[in-house]
Each structure stands twice: as structure tokens, then as C-alpha cells.
Specification:
The chain has helices at residues 20-33, 59-62, 72-82, 108-116, 187-190, 275-283, and strands spanning 8-13, 37-41, 52-54, 65-70, 89-93, 121-131, 140-142, 145-150, 157-163, 166-173, 175-179, 202-208, 218-221, 226-231, 238-242, 246-250, 256-269. It is α+β, with helices and mostly antiparallel strands. It has 2 domains: 8-120 and 270-287, Rossmann fold (3-Layer(aba) Sandwich); 128-262, Tumour Suppressor Smad4 (Sandwich), CATH 2.60.200.30.
């Protein structure tokens, strides 16, 4: 048997996925047959008892490849927790659309040996870094987007927006999204934002249900810094959400900055993957039927 392209492969699984056990067992069998060492990150050890347990922070240091079993949410969480540009992530989709986790469980026996034989594609995806005095100096990373919205009440949120040193003025909307190219097919897309090819070095700024029709999506270079300051009246509260998973409250008068992180993520794709074909299939272009959300 030929030497595999990856020797030490980590596994991260979605805890509450009903079918995760069978998929993990199938992956472990394929990797074992290929003479790969299988590492299980954190609680994933309960799905893969024969794998070597590794603490999550150490997994990207010890693995050549990390396979994430779940949906896009699982892969987003893995990207933030690893953040190591030299350790690629491969997503096995147990969710619905799966823009990021694009390997189907039904294709494992065909696609995974191909990947182990060195036939695959790699994409480098930028991470976003959010910072605010409320974070106490700790950076918060996002692969998809950073969203600012109200915590309480049904009124519009008033925001001051700056790009670099340029003041764009105040805006009123249900919220504001700063999305990476990866995140352009997530929340930003449903809010009317553009689809941005992942090879582009850009950020998309998208208003959520703005009060004025003049508030249109804005594309800026990835080297820009976006400054967002909620204008809060008495009793009003606002928060920032990173990839819809990590959240923290923004205190009155404090500014949130969003910019490209120095870290990035490598996404590994099977040889059959092609970006626009994936969009066509997932979004139902040209008569393709897409799963219900």
C-alpha cells in the first residue's frame, strides 16, 4: 500500500449528531486501512474509542489533517478553535446545505481514499478578528462574519460606521454584518449581500433590514478596518456575534473593530469539488433542487 499523503489525522465530531457514530467508525476504518494514525479531539473520543485522545488545543499541532464531522457550524467552531494555517480542515457534512463541509457521508469510501492518495484541493480562507474594550484585550476570531445587533427590544439599532479613518455616518437598521468571502454565502447572503469568491481579498459590509433604501452593501479591501459604534439610549443593549456562535455585549460608547486576522484557515476539498458547481447545487441555480432549510 502506498504511503498516505497525511500520516496523523485528527477527528472532531458534532456531539449531538444522531448519525455521527456510524460515520466516525467508517472514517476510522478507512484511515486505519491506509495506515494513518487517528487522533480524537476532546469529547470525540467517545465516538472513536480506538483513536488516540488529544486535547483540542494540541490537535492542530499533532495532526497533518483534521476531519470535522457535522455541519458548517461544526467546521466554523473548529476553524476558530484551531486557527492554524498549516493544518487543513476537511468537512464531512451531516447538516443541510453544507457550503463548507462539502464531503457527503455517502462519498466517504470513494473520496477519502482519493484524498489520502494526494488527490485533493486546498483553499486558504481568511479569518476575521473582532476587538473591543469589552473583550479585555482578547482577540475573537470568525471565519464567516461578525454581526452587531440589538439584544432587547424591537426598535432599529443606530450605529456609527467608519472604514479606516473615513466616517460613513450613522445608520439605522436591525443590525450590521461584516462578512469574509467565506461568510458571503451565510447570513450576509440572506440579508441581500453579494456572493464573494473566496479568492478575493475583500470584506462585505451588509445592513440587516435598514431603515433607508440608500443603505446598500459595501465591498472594501481586506486590508481595511471597520469600526462600529452602537448609539444606545437608556435601557438599550447591543451585542456582537461571531459566526453566530460566540457572543459578547457591547457597552454604550464603546467601538467594535473588525479586520482581517493574521491567522487563516486551510479548507481541504475532494477532487470533485468546484466552487461554482457547489453554489449551483446548493442554491438551486439552473433547475438544481436544493434541500429545505
Amino acid at each position: 500500500m502506498k504511503t498516505p499523503a497525511f500520516h496523523h489525522i485528527g477527528l472532531i465530531a458534532k456531539d449531538d449528531a444522531a448519525s455521527v457514530t456510524g460515520v466516525i467508525h467508517e472514517i476510522v476504518a478507512i484511515l486505519t486501512q491506509a495506515r494513518c494514525e487517528v487522533l480524537a479531539g476532546g469529547p470525540t473520543t467517545r465516538f472513536a474509542p480506538t483513536a488516540r485522545p488529544v486535547a483540542m488545543p494540541d490537535l492542530p499541532r499533532q495532526a497533518d489533517l483534521i476531519i470535522v464531522v457535522g455541519g458548517d457550524g461544526s467546521l466554523l467552531a473548529a476553524a476558530r478553535s484551531t486557527g492554524w494555517p498549516k493544518t487543513p480542515l476537511l468537512g464531512v457534512n451531516l447538516g443541510r446545505l453544507g457550503f463548507l463541509a462539502d464531503l457527503s457521508p455517502t462519498e466517504l469510501n470513494k473520496e477519502l481514499p482519493e484524498i489520502l492518495a494526494g488527490r485533493y484541493g486546498i483553499e486558504h480562507r481568511m479569518l476575521l478578528r473582532a476587538d473591543s474594550p469589552d473583550l479585555d484585550g482578547n482577540d475573537a476570531l470568525a471565519l464567516n462574519d461578525v454581526v452587531v445587533k440589538r439584544i432587547n427590544g424591537g426598535h432599529l439599532l443606530e450605529l456609527e460606521l467608519m472604514i479606516g479613518a473615513i466616517q460613513l455616518g450613522r445608520t439605522r437598521a436591525d443590525g450590521l454584518i461584516v462578512a469574509s468571502p467565506t461568510g458571503s454565502t451565510a447570513y450576509a447572503l440572506s440579508a441581500g449581500g453579494p456572493i464573494v469568491h473566496p479568492n478575493l481579498e475583500a470584506l462585505a459590509i451588509v445592513h440587516i433590514s435598514p431603515h433607508s433604501l440608500g443603505e446598500r452593501p459595501i465591498m472594501v479591501g481586506a486590508d481595511q478596518t471597520v469600526h462600529i459604534r452602537p448609539v444606545l439610549n437608556a435601557g438599550e443593549r447591543a451585542e456582537a456575534l461571531l459566526d453566530g456562535q460566540l457572543r459578547f455585549e457591547l457597552k454604550p460608547g464603546k467601538t467594535l473593530t473588525v479586520q482581517r486576522s493574521k491567522n487563516s484557515v486551510q479548507l481541504l476539498h475532494p477532487p470533485s469539488y468546484e466552487y461554482f458547481s457547489n453554489l449551483r447545487k446548493k442554491l438551486g441555480w439552473g433547475g438544481w433542487r436544493t434541500p429545505s432549510c
